[in-house]
């Protein structure tokens, strides 16, 4: 009886192994798992929840980018990766977000390029005053090898930078009077990003610059602690700057560029296919929002006028001639190769 049972067990085992071998091979003799269209991630079925933070409101291009990215990732991963978006600086200001990504305490962020300079000095080249002539020049840069090389600079500080997203030219606002020339800047105290190139640019243009986190800027303007600030149309509108500022003068001294980034520590915990999926989604989302941002410039300007802001042109050549020391200092400090590469695209 035991012998019969043993033979029966062996037969069943043989049939099981045969079936297992057959199921792993397709008609063409290749393993089905090797077919890239049928391959799944290394941890098939495991769901990953990632946090993405930014400092802007839900109506700002920061948030539009975050939502576009979230939609692409969740759709393409079929729900295996979920992106939770936190706006309004809920998870910290931009420097804090960068530090958190470095240590793996934050997964993803949409951040303007300027604070990155504190971690990767080369990023500061984007803030050299009057580097970019117009939107077409910016777009040529975005499609260039120069941009590709600059994106890689954060690799050495534990952060992946997937794409640059153009936001618009930054211009001066204040509550006192219109600005037409650098002489009109005298006596004005303006909030700027806490960055040497911003401080030097505004000081050389004739005003007094004070570095301040954006979270403190609105109250400072409201209370009269400062006279104004400098920003692009999208921030001036979506952050309600028009409530505390009357005049917007189109100095267009620096072009605002956002980035979409991730923590290398976080990404290394994901299967390689999901890492690539996230990178591709970031690039695709960036392209979509870049087009949107350019299309919205006239709309945002009209909205600000409707809200009561007075918008005026300036003698831009006078402003350009006012900042040669800042241009020279920071083009050398942040990388003359990058500076030349970008200016050659004009």
Automatic annotation (TrEMBL):
PROSITE patterns: PROKAR_LIPOPROTEIN. Transmembrane segments: none annotated. PANTHER family: C4-DICARBOXYLATE-BINDING PROTEIN DCTB (PTHR33376:SF7), PTHR33376. This is 2,3-diketo-L-gulonate-binding periplasmic protein YiaO. InterPro entries: DctP_fam, TRAP_DctP, TRAP_DctP_sf. Belongs to the bacterial solute-binding protein 7 family. It comes from the Bacteria. GO terms for biological process: transmembrane transport. It comes from Halalkalibacter krulwichiae. Keywords: Signal, Transport. Residues 1-19 form the signal peptide. GO terms for cellular component: outer membrane-bounded periplasmic space.
């Amino acid at each position: 009886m035991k012998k019969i049972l043993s033979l029966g067990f062996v037969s069943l085992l043989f049939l099981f192994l045969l079936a297992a071998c057959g199921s792993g091979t397709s008609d063409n003799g290749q393993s089905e798992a090797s077919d890239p269209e049928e391959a799944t991630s290394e941890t098939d079925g495991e769901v990953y929840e990632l946090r993405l933070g930014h400092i802007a409101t839900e109506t700002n291009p920061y948030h539009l980018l975050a939502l576009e990215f979230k939609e692409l990732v969740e759709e393409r991963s079929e729900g295996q990766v979920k992106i939770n978006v936190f706006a309004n600086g809920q998870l910290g200001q931009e420097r804090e977000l960068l530090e958190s990504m470095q240590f793996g305490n934050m997964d993803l962020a949409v951040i303007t390029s300027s604070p990155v300079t504190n971690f990767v000095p080369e990023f500061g080249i984007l803030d050299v005053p009057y580097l970019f002539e117009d939107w077409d020049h910016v777009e040529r840069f975005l499609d260039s090898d120069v941009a590709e090389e600059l994106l890689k600079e954060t690799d050495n500080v534990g952060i992946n930078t997937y794409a640059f997203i153009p936001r618009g030219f930054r211009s001066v606002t204040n509550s006192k009077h219109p600005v037409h020339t650098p002489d009109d800047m005298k006596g004005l105290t303006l909030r700027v990003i806490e960055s040497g190139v911003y401080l030097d640019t505004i000081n050389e243009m004739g005003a007094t610059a004070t570095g301040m986190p954006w979270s403190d800027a609105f109250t400072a303007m409201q209370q009269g602690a400062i006279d104004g600030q400098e920003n692009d149309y999208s921030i001036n509108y979506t952050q309600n700057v028009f409530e505390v500022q009357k005049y917007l003068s189109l100095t267009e001294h620096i072009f605002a560029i956002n980035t979409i980034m991730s923590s290398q520590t976080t990404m290394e915990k994901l299967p390689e296919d999901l890492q690539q999926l996230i990178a591709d989604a970031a690039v695709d989302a960036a392209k979509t929002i870049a087009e949107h941002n350019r299309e919205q410039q006239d709309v945002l300007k009209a909205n600000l006028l409707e809200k009561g802001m007075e918008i005026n042109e300036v003698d831009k050549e006078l402003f350009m001639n006012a900042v040669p020391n800042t241009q020279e200092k920071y083009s050398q400090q942040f990388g003359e190769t990058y500076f030349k590469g970008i200016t050659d695209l004009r």
